[in-house]
Amino acid sequence: MVEGLKRRFGTGLEALTYLGQNYLQVEGAIAGELLHILCEEEQFDYCVDITALHYPKRERPFDVIWILYSFPKNERVRVKAQFADGAPVQSVVSLWPTANWLEREVFDMFGIRFEGHPDLKRILLPDGWKGHPLRKDYGILQQDQEWVQINLGIESGQ
Amino acid sequence: MIPDYITSYLDKSVRVTPGEAGNIFWALVYILCVFGGVSLVVVCMNWLERKILAHMQIRLGPMRVGPHGLLQPIADALKLILKEDIIPEGADVLVFWTAPLIILLAVFSVYCVIPFGPTHAITDMNIGLLFMLGVSSLGVLGIVMAGWASNSHYPLIGALRSSAQMVSYEVAMGLAVVSAVLMTSLNAQGTGTLSMIGIVQAQQAQQTWFLFKFFPLGLVAFVVFAIAMVAETNRAPFDLPEAESELTAGFHTEYSGLRWSLFMLGEYAAMIAVSSIAITLWLGGWMRPFPHLLTGQAWDLAFSLFPALTFFGLAGLAFYAVGKMWAILYFRVQAIGLAGLAAVFGLIGLILLLRPVRTGVQDIYWFVAKIAVFLYLFIWYRATFPRYRFDQLMKVGWKVLLPIGLGVLVLTAIAGVIFG
Amino acid sequence: MTPVATPFFFYMLSGLMVVGGLFVITRRNPVHSALALIVTLLAQAGLYLMLYAPFVAGVQIILYVGGIMVLFLFVIMLVNLERTEKEKPFNKQWLVGIASAVALGAMFVGVYVRGRALLPEHTVSLPEAENTQQVGLMLYGNYMLAFEIASLLLLVAIIGAVVMAKKRI
Amino acid sequence: MNDPTSGVSHLDFDAKESTFLDASELIINMGPQHPATHGVLRVILKLDGEKVMGLECVIGYLHRGVEKIAENRTYAMFNPYVDRMDYVAAVSNGLGYCEAVEKLLNVEASPRAKYIRVILTELNRIASHQLWLGTHALDIGAMTPLFYTFRDREEILKIFEKYCGARLTTHAFRIGGCQYETYDGFEQDVRNFLDFFAPKIDEYEELLTTNRIWVQRTRDVGVISGKDCIALGVTGPVLRASGVKWDLRKAQPYAAYKEFDFEIPVGTKGDTYDRYLVRMAEMRQSMRIIRQAVDGLPSGPIMAKVPKVLKPPVGEIYHSIEAPKGELGYFIVSDGSTQPYRVRVRPPSFVNLQALDLMCKDQLVADVIAVIGTLDIVLGEVDR
Question: From the CA of C75, how many Å to the nearest CA of chain B?
Answer without folding.
Answer: 9
